[in-house]
Amino acid sequence: MTETRKPIVAGNWKMHHTHLDAIQVVQKLDYQLRPEDYRAVEVVVCPAFTALRSIQTLIDGDKLEIQLGAQNLWYEDQGAFTGEVSGPMLAKLNVDYVIVGHSERRQIFGETDEVVNKKVKAVYRNGMIPILCVGETLEERDAGGTEAKVRSQVKEALRGIGQDQAESLVLAYEPIWAIGTGRNATPEDADETTGQIRDELRMKYGELADSIRIQYGGSVKPGNIAELMAKPNIDGALVGGASLDPDEFARVIRYRL
Ligand code: PGA
Predict the structure, then answer these.
(1) Which atom belonging to ligand 1 lies closest to the Cα atom of 133?
(2) Ligand 1: distance of its center to the CA of 190 in Å?
(3) Which of 214, 219, 244, 251 to mutate to test the pocket of ligand 1 (most atoms within 8 A of CB)?
(4) Residue of 44, 239, 243 with the most ligand 1 atoms within 8 Å of its CB, for mutation
(5) Which of 44, 48, 104, 255 has the highest CB neighbour number within 10 Å of its CB?
(6) Measured between alpha carbons, how far is 152 from 134 in angstroms, rounded to an integer?
(7) DSSP letters of 192-221?
(8) Which among 38, 28, 102 has a CA at the least distance from the CA of 67?
(9) pLDDT 10s digits, 81-118
(10) How far is Cα 123 from Cα 115, in angstroms, rounded to an integer?
(11) What is the predicted pLDDT for the residue at 185?
């Protein structure tokens, strides 16, 4: 990471933690973090939809410096979409960030680049910030297709997104083979691909690309975060498994120590 981009570490809890568990985790996490940690790193938690209201109340009530993220949304603002949650619903809960295009959404729920693009637009339309996920499969990596894959995912997802919006954008490079497998990309590989993502952003947004934050995600743990963060193009982490436990997540966030 570079001095101009504040590191952002986000916990993606996926389908874990009831709202009661989530409250405890956030309380314990905040108890471990000091003002200087929040100054050094932007901390985001992305609980399940059912826990958002509870965590919002906790953050507001106790004036926590933790930012609130959602894991998904539907791209229409309202209507007959049984089971879906819209941008206005999330915005009313003071949600700051929405994860869009996570590989689990793409692979298990069939989200296409076109849907991802509509979701990115819906997040911005409702005054929130997307954490846009891109990444290649193991087959694509082995076939030398990583760069082409991530460049096309970035391009398609950001169709119609202008400079003013892209300013706040957060990208997450998550090689699919590294998610939940315990096998993280080497810092060199992760830095190379995040560099290519930044180059794709530069082609579209010019020098603004240098202020857009790009996270790495995929088996990030207390033991490997520091070497990843030492790389120039990596500005933070999207953390699954290691964010579920407040002690472990706090150690990820305090990687400088
Ligand atoms: P992981 O998940 O840290 O458990 O590999 C990362 C993610 O899917 O965002």
Answers:
(1) 9
(2) 14
(3) 219
(4) 239
(5) 44
(6) 9
(7) HHHHHHHHHHHHHHGGGGGGSEEEEESS--
(8) 38
(9) 999 999 999 999 999 999 999 999 999 999 999 999 99
(10) 12
(11) 87
Q: Would you give the DSSP letter of residue 181? A: S
State the Cα torsion 231-237-243-248 to the nearest 10°.
Answer: 20
Q: Which residues, given as ranges, of the chain have pLDDT below 50?
A: none
Q: Is 66 left (phi over 0), alpha (psi -120 to 50) or beta?
A: beta
Q: What is the pLDDT of residue 50?
A: 98
Q: Which two tokens stand for residue 133?
A: 């996920």
* Residue 120: other Cβ atoms inside 10 A: 24
Gap from CA of 240 to ligand 1 centroid (Å): 4
The predicted-structure confidence for 221-240, as pLDDT tens digits, reads as follows 999 999 999 999 999 999 99
Distance CA 126, CA 118 (A): 12
CA of 172 to the centre of ligand 1 (A): 11
Pocket of ligand 1 (CB under 6 A): 12, 174, 179-180, 217-220, 238-242
Q: Which residues contact 115 (CB under 8 A, 6 or more apart)?
A: 75
